[in-house]
Amino acid sequence: MSRAESNSESWKKMVLRSMPSPAWLGADSPEGEIVVSSRVRYARNLKGLRFPHHATEKELAEVLDRTKGTAKGAGLNGNLRLTEAERDFLLGCRLVSPEFQHRAPGRAIFLDSDRAVSVMVNEEDHLRLQGLTAGWSIVNAHAVVDPVVKDLGGSGYMWSPDYGYLTASPYNAGEARRRSALFHLIGLAHTRRLPDVLRALAAWKLTARGLFGESSRAVGAYFQVSMTTGALPEFVGACEYLIAEERKARREVTRQKLEERTKAAVDFAVSSVELSLAEALRALAWVRWAASAGLSIAPFSYREVDLWVSTMEIYGTQDPKIAARHRATFVRERIEA
Question: What's CA 65's distance to the chain center, in Å?
């Protein structure tokens, strides 16, 4: 490893030690073998200012100033100048989006002390607010973020009696809210039943995306299943159907078969000098399933694997080949232990 690579990796490790893990990595995670986390996200825009993609730097700064003025009362702390390593950590923890231009004028991220609530300022909308909680806990996600949405309203949000809450993208207008849960559907993927189940979800008007939102592919059988309209019971019913189908699929796979597939994934990862993000996620997906099934080949908890997924090199803050080597070393050190 070169001196530049070593310095970069040391800096990232220091960031991981200094920034507490998010609430969704907590041990108390209902249905956690299948549902990694639950999230409620809102888009809101402040009255009297243009949307970020049309706003001047002065207007963007005003959005940030208004948010600073209300955030403290909502129990949020702001970070106005993220380093690349900090941004990569928050991205891996899904507290910021891949599209968030954190170094552009007027941008900031606000977080609560538990890292259950995050607010991106001047992403696509003035405010992107989310509550992110452990396992299947969508009611808890509402409970942590809904008061913050109210508190940060300040002088009021853009709203129309005809269109509801106004957003930069007309598609998001109305309730301007997305409920989602991050599923690990490796059983359905392995038994080749996933396409049928996803079609059933589409009939319920649910969308399935990748681990890091709409710009990412569903690698390693990680799917964010979300709904932008409809009542909470509709979303709960659809997700509980999905949990039941995944449990059924996992029961169809013998422990011997699961161990064989996991061993192959571990051998590939351990022998690799470089790992792409997709390759690392595929390997860790099998390790996670084996850990949740209590197999000796994975002598750690599936929540540890979730921590690894969230803290390894994601999109990378440097040359892709260097990031791939970091990723390979990171995964090897953990699954060989």
Answer: 27
